[in-house]
Amino acid sequence: MARVVVDVMPKAEILDPQGQAIVGALARLGFDGVAGVRQGKRFELEVADTVDDVVLENIAADVLANTVIEDYTVTRVQVSS
Amino acid sequence: MARVVVDVMPKAEILDPQGQAIVGALARLGFDGVAGVRQGKRFELEVADTVDDVVLENIAADVLANTVIEDYTVTRVQVSS
After folding, report:
1. Which residues of chain A have a CB within 8 Å of the CB of B9?
2. Architecture of domain A2-79
């Protein structure tokens, strides 16, 4: 089995109201110095060793991310037999 | 400014119905070989250089994560003046 991480973030040109809300909350709570926050999703997948990078790209692009408004990165973090 | 990534994932002993739904969806869509998925959150913060690691820990533990059911990791990914 292999461990794969897919990070999905809103594209830079897309407004992120969740992130903006967190910036405001941090300021109200007294955490100064945080200029920006963007919130996305992180998926940790356990996949069989037969799953190649092309399939992982398809999973990320077709199922996990909405590529109209989100960017994604696929990273293999660990391979053990 | 420094770029900081905070990853928040459900603790291993916590059920993750979102992740389980994704496993089922992938199987129905013909993506075989995915044994498990866990879904969490990824936060990308732009913070001033004056914000030290203790403050970042507090931000992650008190605001971004619910430490009863979630684990978090704080990673500085880039420091530029």
Report:
1. 42, 44
2. 2-Layer Sandwich (3.30)
